[in-house]
Amino acid sequence: MVYTADRIGLFFMFSVILILTVRALYGSVQEKNELIQEIHHRVRNNLQVISGLVEMHSGSGKENLQIILSDFQNRILAISEVHNYLYKSENYFEIDFVEVMDKIILNLSHRLGKRSIKIETEAESTFLRIENAIPCAMIFNELLSNSLKHAFRSEKGTVQISFRKKGDKYYLQVSDNGSGIKDFKIWSKPKTAGFTLIQILTKQIKGRFQISSEGGFTTVLEFNSI
């Protein structure tokens, strides 16, 4: 009788474990499906934003066409770096954003032919939810591209990059020791595709964007963790 009772007890115990495991797996699958839907939603929105910028440039002269196409290719590559990380990782919910930043730095330095410009990075491994990672990658691409292309009158200069988390907030800073800017309305009333895109994406992640021009040009993106 004791033996039978033990068997019944074990049966119920394993049954409970099995039920809990199935529920956990179902919850995990459901969570991943929701995440995939969110990723698709974000990518669709961001591609629509890029499509709108393409339309905005549709009247540009042929002499600017090569530059415009190169800029849009870099933007799409920034999105793809986030997805490349996801495909190689077992973590479908967060990415090490510093790794994505490194890929974008290599891509822009190579494609823009600015390898002589010194790029200093101060960032430790910091994970971002995928919902924030895609817009942040695109914002970082714009900021670094702006410094590499427009900050320096010669082929020499330094760009300093930092990314950190403090409490519930993230801070992404890109600074250069170039010529700086005179028109601070580029943020409140952006006239370029790059700053228009930054403004849209900053609102998307409910962030705050600051610029200053002391000894060069500094931009700081601040946003909350999800």
What does this structure look like?
- The chain has 226 residues and is of the alpha+beta class.
- It folds into 2 domains: 1-59; 65-224, Heat Shock Protein 90.
- 58% of the residues lie in helices and 19% in strands.
- It is built from 6 helices and 7 strands, in the order ααβαββαββααββ.
- It has helices spanning 2-56, 65-88, 97-111, 130-150, 185-188, 193-204; strands at 94-96, 118-123, 127-129, 158-166, 169-176, 208-212, 217-224.
- A 5-stranded mixed β-sheet has the order 2-4-5-7-6, with helices on one face. A two-stranded antiparallel ribbon has the order 1-3.
- The termini are far apart.
- The mean pLDDT is 78.
- This is histidine kinase.
Mean pLDDT, all residues: 78
| Secondary-structure content class | alpha+beta
Structure annotation, total helices = 6
Strand order of the largest sheet: 2-4-5-7-6
* Shape estimate: globular
Number of domains: 2
- Helicity range of the residues? 55-70%
Order of helices and strands: HHEHEEHEEHHEE
Total E-strand runs: 7
CATH superfamily of the largest domain: Histidine kinase-like ATPase, C-terminal domain
CATH topology of the largest domain: Heat Shock Protein 90
